[in-house]
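Entry 12.
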Amino acid sequence: TNEHGAFDAVTTVFWQKIDQSARNITPFLLSVGLVLLSVVPMPVAGFAPIVPAFAVMSIYHWAIYRPNLLPFSAVFVLGLLYDLLAGAPVGLFAIVFLTVYGVALTQRKFIAGKSFLIYWFGFGIIAFGAAIESWALISIWHLTLLDTQAVFFQYLVSLGIFPLVAWIFLKWQQTLLTDL
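Predicted 3D structure (tokens):
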């Protein structure tokens, strides 16, 4: 019986580690899902240029609340994945996403644990910076100033839909990641 008890303990620890690893990777997997959602063609006319910046929302959230579960390397991979799937110059959105992550990390102590309005306001500022940065980098890449209208509307749509996405992330975090 003692040997059986030791086996049960090892099995329990093994499954606990599997459970913890699965939970730890969920922020990255959710972010990958949002990158995919951002590049999947939608049957709505004129929607492609103003698809909400879902990946920016995800990167911002995890940088504020659980940066240990979405490290710089994961953000870099998300950026490269977005670049490859969206047909952007490779590295462009990797730079934008890393900027979002880095800025959010520096503001974490001012945003985490504050009211939702502060959290949303922080997103608004950082997402605006990301929109300007991506517009500038793409303009430089193409050696022409691109129209800002689509970037502006994408920003507004992102700002408007952020509360819903943030609510989902916060519920996900409360449900699955509270004991990590």
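Annotation: The two ends are 32 Å apart (CA to CA). The chain has six helices and no strands.
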